[in-house]
Every structure is written in structure tokens, then in C-alpha cells.
């Protein structure tokens, strides 16, 4: 093999190697983007319908835990997902709060600590929220509990996805 042929083949080797590495990296970046674009479950809130949770008549001014199941669809399958809401009523207004602590995602409970009556309590890092879901200053959560989108139809309460405030 001549010196010239040797240089060309080394250059070719580098070209093939860099092309291969570049292509691999590009694929690694593009595949999650493509999945996000195609998969509705990964888009904000996913595809969630409203589900009947309670009769408005059974709501009181005391936050009450309601368990319900939503059917979540994405491009490839449908699955049942369990949800929880803390719901109460003040006059004509209904408040439905997510139980997911806005610190690191543990579950809050109404009056979960006897030292803090009339508040939601998160046992993981002692996070606290007021009855309306507002985070108590100087506890770990830095924003209020999310609220459920809701509809009232024929005296029944339907909940949809959660939204940040
Ligand atoms: S997860 Fe609730 S206080 Fe940390």
C-alpha cells in the first residue's frame, strides 16, 4: 500500500467513525422528541375525560377524600388510572384539590397531624397546606396544591385533569 493510499484510508476511517458517532447522537436526541410529539400521554395532562366523582349533595365544608378511576388513552393503549381528590364545598363554590404534595410528590391528608388542625399535612417532610390548598410558608412546599378541573351536571360533580395555580 502506498503512503497516499494509507492516508486516504485513515481519513476514510475517521470520516466513517465521526459520521457513525454523530448519527448515533442525533438519533438519541431525536427519538425522545419524536415520541413526545406522537404520544399524547406525554403531552400536558394527557388525554383525560371528566369522570363522575360524587353527588354535589354529599359534599360538605369538610374536605373529604374521594377515590375514582379515569380511563387514560394514548396512541397505543387505554389504561385505568386511580385518582384521589380532596373535595369540599363553600356555599356555591366547590373546591377539588389534588392530594399530591408540591414538594416531592408524597400524598397529603386533611388533618393528617393533630398538631395542625384545619390543614393538609404531608408526612414526608412535614409540608403543610391551608384548607384552600395554599402552601404554608416556611414548610417545604413552595406552591399550592393543584386543583382539578371540574363540571357539575345534573347535580353530580365530574372531575378532569389537574392544573397548577
Ligand atoms: S413531599 Fe411533601 S413535604 Fe416533601
Automatic annotation (TrEMBL):
Keywords: 2Fe-2S, Disulfide bond, Electron transport, Iron, Iron-sulfur, Membrane, Metal-binding, Oxidoreductase, Transmembrane, Transmembrane helix, Transport
Extent of the signal sequence: none
Listed GO MF terms: 2 iron, 2 sulfur cluster binding; metal ion binding; monooxygenase activity; oxidoreductase activity, acting on paired donors, with incorporation or reduction of molecular oxygen
Domain of life from the UniProt record: Bacteria
Transmembrane segments: 12-34
Domain Rieske as annotated: residue spans: 80-159
UniProt-listed Gene3D superfamilies: Rieske [2Fe-2S] iron-sulphur domain
PANTHER family in UniProt: CYTOCHROME B-C1 COMPLEX SUBUNIT RIESKE, MITOCHONDRIAL (PTHR10134)
Family according to the record: Belongs to the Rieske iron-sulfur protein family.
Protein function: Component of the menaquinol:cytochrome c reductase complex. The Rieske protein is a high potential 2Fe-2S protein.
Complex and partners: The main subunits of the menaquinol:cytochrome c complex are a Rieske-type iron-sulfur protein (QcrA), a cytochrome b (QcrB) and a cytochrome c (QcrC).
Protein name (database record): Menaquinol:cytochrome c reductase iron-sulfur subunit
Amino acid at each position: 500500500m502506498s503512503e497516499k493510499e494509507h492516508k486516504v484510508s485513515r481519513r476514510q476511517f475517521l470520516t466513517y467513525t465521526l459520521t457513525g458517532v454523530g448519527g448515533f447522537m442525533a438519533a438519541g436526541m431525536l427519538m425522545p422528541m419524536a415520541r413526545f410529539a406522537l404520544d399524547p400521554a406525554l403531552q400536558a395532562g394527557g388525554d383525560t375525560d371528566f369522570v363522575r366523582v360524587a353527588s354535589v349533595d354529599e359534599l360538605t365544608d369538610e374536605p373529604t377524600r374521594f377515590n375514582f378511576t379515569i380511563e387514560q388513552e394514548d396512541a397505543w393503549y387505554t389504561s385505568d388510572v386511580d385518582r384521589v381528590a380532596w373535595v369540599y364545598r363553600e356555599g356555591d363554590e366547590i373546591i377539588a384539590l389534588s392530594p399530591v404534595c408540591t414538594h416531592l410528590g408524597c400524598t397529603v391528608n386533611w388533618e393528617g397531624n393533630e398538631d395542625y388542625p384545619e390543614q393538609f399535612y404531608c408526612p414526608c417532610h412535614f409540608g403543610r397546606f391551608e384548607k384552600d390548598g395554599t402552601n404554608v410558608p416556611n414548610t417545604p412546599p413552595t406552591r399550592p396544591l393543584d386543583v382539578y378541573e371540574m363540571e357539575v351536571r345534573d347535580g353530580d360533580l365530574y372531575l378532569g385533569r389537574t392544573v397548577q395555580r
